[in-house]
Amino acid sequence: MYKNIFFTLLILGMAFMGVAFVFVKSAVTGYSPFVFLFYRFLIATMVLSLIFHKQIPKVTNTAIKTASLCGIPLFLSILFQTIGLKYTTVSNSAFITGMVVLLIPIFKMIFYKKKVKPIVWISCVVAMTGLYIITLKNGLKLNIGDLWTVACAMALAFYVLQIGKYAHEPSPMARVTIIMVVCTIGSLLGGLSTPGVNWFPQEYGFWKGLIFTSLLGTVYMYAVQSYGQRFIEEEKVALAYLTEPIFATMAAVFLINEKVTIHTFLGGTLILAAMFLSKIKTDRLKQLVVKVRHKS
User: Fold this and answer.
1) Which parts pass through the membrane (predicted)?
2) Distance from first CA to last CA of the chain, Å, rounded?
């Protein structure tokens, strides 16, 4: 029961994240990514601190350590994605970020010595073909924005695995609040180390996108994921990530009239197909084939 509830809530979070792609791209077009991220995580930290203020005093040194181990890859993933959105389209960014679905089982094999099913390797080939098609419009080269987004997908895979590793530790909401603190500090340090940063943007669109992204794309999304992974395994979370590129592309088309090129459409379709393919339960598929043969 809890699995289905949190999976549904996670899908809703992916819808918010998909729309947030559009707002983030619009907000960082003329400003430093560090400024947007600083305010984004600062607002998220304050909101979570108010909502879960009773859990905060119970935080232990162990909780701070585990939150830091989760916060660093999350901060890097969102930073890389935000930088990438300055130089690539929303649809490209969403589809490439979606490759996290394939990276999670591969990283589990490399770092946790878990077996990877052959279907995952086949999916990787399909996904890389899709990525190849997306790059055709750039002369078979990933543009700088796409490269930043590939780095985002890698860091995001680490984050999902770290959250899964510490999901059953006490005070999950206090932990996610500390994760937001880590991201806030990282954004502040990045901004302070960048010369000429405008810390007080005057554009309404910047603040509108910031509020939506902070509350729905950050507070809601990461609180649900952090607590939900007590009941949902990493692969199931990865399955939810399948929907994010769809929501993001729809938002880009309807909200900012972004044109989806044939290369992005075909390449994105292959990446999406690879994600679904990687989730096929081969054992059940074999059983189905046997049943069909038996009936015939």
Assistant:
1) 5-24, 30-52, 64-83, 89-107, 119-136, 142-161, 173-192, 204-225, 237-256, 262-278
2) 37
